Amino acid sequence: MSGTRAVTRSIRLRPRYRQGPWRVAGPDEDAFTRTVGAVERLLETRSTPREVAVRKLHLVGAPEEFAEDALPSALGMESLAVRRYAASPDGASAAIESAGHPTEGEGVDVIVGLDAPSSEERRSGSATVGLLVEAREGLRLEGHLRVPGRHGSAPAAALVLARSASMIDELPRRPASIWLEFPGEVPAEWTDLWVARAAPGGWRSFAPAGDLGKDAATGLLSLVHQARQEWPNGTEGIVGVVEPTGATLLKLRESASDRSGAPPPEDVPGALIELPTGDVRWPVRLDAVSEGAYVPRASYLESLPARWRLLGATCGVCRAVTFPPRSRCRNCGRTDQLQPTELPRRGCTVAAVTTIAPGAQPTEFDPQVALLGAYSVVIVEVVPGVRVTAQVTDAIAGTIALGDRVDLELRRLYAMEGAWRYGLKAVPTDAVTRSAPARG
Ligand SMILES: [Zn+2]
Questions:
Q1: Mean pLDDT of 331-353
Q2: pTM score, two decimals?
Q3: What dihedral angle (degrees, nearest 10) is formed by the CA atoms of 324, 326, 329, 335?
Q4: How far is the CA of 322 from the centre of ligand 1 (A)?
């Protein structure tokens, strides 16, 4: 089996916010926080999270200003290598090809697809897709077809469709499953034609996957995710994205029977949080300096492991956990037996909660309150004797109660000294929306 690398885990994270009819990323999320969240969730689906080395992180569709340098600190992987790919089906397929390419060395590759950061042109739901690739059985890339087309018009799209149908026709073995996404405005009669052309070939299923999100890069990765979730062992099939300017098709084979550890592909029901239309980012100047909780940049950077990953210190003598970590055990005072420990951040119990009404917030949260109004703050007990305070996000203010469970996730806090400051916020555990796309 050496040399065989395949997708063995996959997730699709959907944001909790809505703007008009579309799911959009929350105002305290950006490409950095969404990437960190996706990698963490993906590694948690393994039986031995964190003990595995990530060889390379393949980023599809990350914007120019992406805070790549901060990824190793946020993920606790000091030697992490990052590769970037264009926000297009070609970029997505290049990432899958590169991650699946057999090379020497242990470890996993992670692919993260982010949809386009600008919301102006987007007319579909937002999603982050994560794929884990390793030297095991799973969903394997067997081939890559690129169907060129001309720019712009519906006839060009029809040409692409016709050409993609004949390319599939030329395959030595007929695929058992074909899922294509049509992100552009492709007239129904042309897709009908495609189906008519495909049907005589005896393929078992054809799915114009309309609900996948029309951002083409995450669209293709979403199809791979969905195939990993749903294709029975042994399935050979095609997933692809057809655009007026060409089609990208992947030939895949599912060869694993064991899917234990994969998260259930479900969308948690419940109301989405409505955002005002227009730009949803905090309306702040990055050079603004808060009069409130001013933390000098040097001490902020120094304390990142504690702030971002809840890195504390466990005493080897009395087992007490000291957080934030200090050079001395808070319980027995020993200084020579402290071991760095990442404290749990999932399903923490709310021990205290308060809601901050507009006007009562520290000044660094003014822009946030102007956009979203009141917010809640909780104290959670992460391990016995260690309590952490966090702002609640992805929830309507006042809806969190004592005893509820929250996850601590990295989000934007506020701008200070010309840059965003990030930290952990509390997300209701039930609001985590891991989902496979809904099927029509
Ligand atoms: Zn101790």
A1: 94
A2: 0.87
A3: 160
A4: 9
